[in-house]
Design a protein that fits this description.
The chain has 146 residues and is α+β, with helices and mostly antiparallel strands. The chain has a single domain, classed as Gcn5-related N-acetyltransferase (GNAT) (Aminopeptidase, 3-Layer(aba) Sandwich). The protein has 4 helices and 5 strands; from the N terminus they run βααβββαβα. The protein has helices at residues 12-25, 32-42, 95-109, 124-133, and strands at 2-6, 49-56, 59-69, 78-86, 114-116. The chain has a 5-stranded mixed beta sheet, with helices on both faces. β2 and β3 form a beta hairpin. It is globular.
């Protein structure tokens, strides 16, 4: 049975393993201090960054992080689903769909107007799920690093 619950301080080791899997999937590296800073914010309710871990038979199989922010096009806040990762052995198990559902429930409870997220064009397996649970916006993502 799949259980999803808020990331806790004592989850650091399992969260870190999932986080490193996520970074590896996207072929990126972050310094240890940035990773620790992210975790510290995720477990701090006052930070505005939230996270949950999916557990299957006592094993952590996925993670999700999100935040809400004010919007100019809505009275309700928007929810940005920033990170979603399911370990390779648990893909296709429904964990990704359940993690998105968890964020949807939290965003609904918070009165958000919508949830949005980004993914790589090449992330075809995840995009197949996203096409089932959400509407593709048609927007193109740009960024300016500072």
């Amino acid at each position: 049975m799949l259980e999803i619950r808020t990331v806790r301080t004592e989850d650091h080791a399992v969260w870190l393993e999932l986080w490193q899997g996520y970074l590896k999937f996207y072929e990126t590296e972050l310094s240890d201090d940035v990773t620790q800073y992210a975790f510290d914010r995720i477990v701090n309710p006052a930070s505005g960054l939230d996270g949950a871990i999916a557990w299957q038979d006592g094993h952590a199989v996925g993670l999700v992080h999100w935040l809400t922010h004010q919007a100019t096009w809505s009275r309700g806040d928007y929810c940005y689903l920033e990170d979603l990762f399911v370990s390779p052995g648990a893909r296709g198990s429904g964990a990704g769909r359940s993690l998105i559902g968890h964020v949807r429930d939290r965003a609904t409870d918070a009165g958000c107007a919508k949830i949005y997220w980004l993914t790589a064009e090449t992330n075809t397996r995840a995009r197949a799920l996203y096409d089932q649970v959400a509407t593709r916006s048609g927007f193109i993502h740009y960024q300016l690093s500072l």
